[in-house]
Amino acid sequence: MESLFAGMFSPEWFAAFTSIVLLDLILSGDNAILIALACKNLPPHHRGRAILVGGMGAVFIRICCTLFATGLLAAPYLEFIGGALLLYIAVKLLTDHKGGSEETGAQPTTFWAAVRTILIADFIMSIDNVLSLAGVANTVPEGKWSLIICGLLVSIPIVLCGAQFFLLLMKKIPALVYAGAAILAYTAAELMTGDRALGIYLAAYAPLLKALFIIGVLGLGYCLNRRDKRQER
After folding, report:
1. Nearest Cα to Cα of residue 121 among 210, 183, 75, 72
2. Is residue 155 within 8 Å of 35, Cβ to Cβ?
3. Cβ contact 25:156 at 8 Å
4. CA dist., res. 130 & res. 127, Å (int)
5. Residue 106 has what DSSP assignment?
6. Helices 111-137 & 176-193, crossing angle to 10 degrees?
7. How many CB atoms lie within 10 A of CB 40?
8. Which of 116, 98, 115 is nearest to 107 (CA)?
9. DSSP labels for 119-173?
10. Largest alpha-carbon pair distance within the chain?
11. What's the pTM value of the predicted model, to 2 decimals?
């Protein structure tokens, strides 16, 4: 227990902790948007619970990933595959309209389907968070684990509160769903160009890939949504 808290509250520890908090604020935004997208079509009485369960499950996944950050997350092709899956999830969330009202007869998105989407996509999107957290924590070897624990604890309210905030925004401004999908597409490009095996071949085309992914996801989502509206008429 003493080794767990060794090095805490030293100047180096506080400097590293401040860096981790800033990274959490910067890198957790897309995770919060993802959770809001996944929950936007749930019945109102399920949204808060899905955000809580999905968010806590996502943090648990981050804890497990952090423990194996230098092994599993550094594996070749993992980030490339994760980026490809994230593109699929971005389109799926953009075109998911199962949250209709009782008048339309549409079946609402199920609670566990939303939680499952949150957990899978957050695992993919947490690669940069986890590697950044582990990297900063390693700068203070004697306080590494206390920094990791504190960093993960700080990420919980950031992700949960951020998800609630973005969900409210999306309900008031539905067009923001497209902005959220664009952020997921951008994140997918970053993951794929940062892959340990294929990233060296894609890095030079990173700006082009980011633009193509964003245009592709938004364009495909728009076309599919228009097709669905025509079929409903």
Report:
1. 183
2. no
3. no
4. 5
5. P
6. 50
7. 21
8. 98
9. HHHHHHHHHHHHHHHHHHHTTSGGGHHHHHHHHHHHHHHHHHHHHHHHHHHHHH-
10. 67
11. 0.71
Q: Which of 41, 51, 149 is nearest to 97 (CA)?
A: 41
Contact 195, 127 (CB under 8 A): no
- Dihedral (CA of 36, 52, 162, 88) sign: negative
Tokens of 224: 């599919």
167, two tokens: 């969900």
The two structure tokens encoding residue 124: 């993919």
Contact present, 125 and 30 (Cβ < 8 Å)? yes
- Angle CA(86)–CA(89)–CA(91) in degrees, nearest 5? 115
Rounded distance, CA 31 to CA 8, Å?
Answer: 28
144 residue type, one letter: K
Q: pLDDT for 4-48, tens place per residue?
A: 555 566 788 888 888 888 877 777 777 888 888 888 888 888 888
Rank 64-78, 139-153, 209-223 by mean pLDDT and report only the highest: 209-223
To the nearest 10 degrees (0 to 180), the angle between helices 44-67 and 144-172 is: 150
Q: Distance between CA 171 and CA 76 in Å, rounded?
A: 39
Residue pair 230/220 in contact (Cβ under 8 Å)? The answer is: no
- CA–CA separation, 80 vs 228, rounded Å? 31
Cα first-last separation, the chain: 65
